[in-house]
Amino acid sequence: MKILLLNDSFPPLIDGVANVVLNYASILTGMGAEVMVVTPSNPDAVDDYPFEVVRYKSMDTTKLVGYRAGFPFDANALERLEAFQPDIIHVHCPIISLMLARVLRQLTGAPIVFTYHTKFDIEVHKYINSRFLQDGAIHLLADNISSCDEVWAVSRGAGENLHSLGYNGPFYIMENGVDLPKARAKEDAVSEINRTYEIPEGIPVFLFVGRMQWYKGNRITLDALRGVADAGHDYRMIFVGDGADLAEMKTYTDELSLSDKVIFTGAIRDREVLQAFYTRADLFLFPSTFDTNGIVVREAAACGLGSLLVRGSCAAEGITHLENGVLVEENPTSMRDALLDLMKKPGEFCRIGENAGNQIYIPWSKSVALAYERYWVICQYADRGECQTPENFSENFFEMFADFYTSMAKLRELHRDIITLRQEFRDRIEEHLEDHPLRRLKDDLQDRIDGHLEENPLIQKIRDHIHKDRRE
Predict the structure, then answer these.
(1) Which of 58, 93, 113, 288 has the fewest beta carbons closer than 10 A?
(2) 96-108 vs 131-146: helix crossing angle, rounded to 10
(3) CB–CB of 382/111 below 8 Å?
(4) pTM of structure
(5) Which residues is 262 bridged to in the sheet?
(6) What average pLDDT is seen over the chain?
(7) How far apart are CA 238 and CA 253, in angstroms?
């Protein structure tokens, strides 16, 4: 099967969805599929993967939105992608990548499956201030998603959020996996963390891994930990990651007088080191209502670490309170009380973590295998003509653009043919003249003229004079 994977981010730019696409591409390639990743160009990219990466034109908008914005109508990229003739197009971002996918569907006939990873209404509200423009952007987003042949959501909560945006179609739940093996880190790796960050023995360690941004719920965490400290308990809280709000979070930690208990490590990309952090911690604190799946919760479970989550959040799906996780309300008091109760009986940390590993851990190999099976079903629907592309203005636009691109591609091919024919004509003329009597006469006359000039005394004097002037 030939599979196109499209996303607006991909390494060297690292985020949760970029990591998803990387794992899909790697595992599908290992399963024997022919995979091509399609993403905006990046001057820092080194694409030494076992699969092909096609990068299309982009502009640097990292300071504005955190990643590069691609131009989905890049003719050179479209030519390569059309030639690939994919069986299925899997899109992981509903904006630029999905626009490109819709053009490719018109060109190749391949069905589109889209995975909804992120609550884009929050992203829209973060970057657009005007309510009118917010509503317009969300409407366009929903219209774009509605054009897909099948829609996947990484959790039921993610699908419900998608419906709240105006998407009225069905969705299929396809959970993400994790790339950490189900195992705890080696003891020496854990001891190294204790030494590096001077963590005393015998106190609980709490952990957060992810982007340092307030919408992840970290203000709730810090306020709750202030309450735990006020109750007379010692602990260490480790924040692993980087992000736009890191400086503010450090300042707020100082204001709460928690600097002696809270550690900010910055971004850690070494997966073995990250595994050691998960192993060292007693509880993973993730009070985020933004995340649609919470991959880090399952990463923690892989290392036998349970998580504290907001009741009713997407990340809390599959969690039973005090069985394989801890559920709290979305406020500092509820989190503080839950932590104080658990600290009275520290053995609960281990029991909850072990249950999490047995009940909610999903490796990427299993997740992608399920997706691959579903690809075949979608392709069968498409072959039988059961994938219905909607008839609306936006789809007509992409159809018109595909027709325009096809016409331009034919013109480019005609231009290349004309250049080739012109060169062939020149080569034949040169070949024909090579043995022509006039060609030999011209060459003979040129040799005689050159010889005469070499023997002429006047020419020699002029040359000597020129050389003399140059020396002086």
Answers:
(1) 58
(2) 30
(3) yes
(4) 0.75
(5) 237
(6) 87
(7) 12
Instruction: Compute the distance between CA of residue 279 and CA of residue 261 in angstroms, rounded to an integer.
Output: 19
131 HSE (CA, 13 A, CB side): 0
In the chain, pLDDT over 70 holds for what percent of residues? Answer: 81
Residue 430 CA to chain centroid, in angstroms? 54
Cα distance between residue 235 and residue 232, in whole Å = 10
Token pair belonging to 275: 């595994």
- For the chain, count helices (H), then strands (E): 18, 15
Q: What tokens were used for 162?
A: 């998608």
pLDDT band for position 397 (cuts 50, 70, 90): low
Pick one of 3.40.50.2000, 3.10.20.30, 3.20.20.70, 3.40.718.10 as the CATH number of 187-361: 3.40.50.2000
Given the structure tokens 């396809």, which residue do they identify? 174
pLDDT score of 354: 97
End-to-end alpha-carbon separation of the chain, Å?
Answer: 76
2-177+366-390: which CATH topology?
Answer: Rossmann fold (3.40.50)
Q: Do the domains 2-177+366-390 and 187-361 sit in the same CATH topology, yes or no?
A: yes
For residue 195, give every residue at least 6 positions away whose Cβ sits within 8 Å of its Cβ, in sequence order, or none.
Answer: none
Neighbours of 12 (CB within 10 A): 12
Q: What is the mean pLDDT of residues 126-134?
A: 71
> What tens digit of pLDDT does each residue of 250-289 get?
999 999 999 999 999 998 989 999 999 999 999 999 999 9
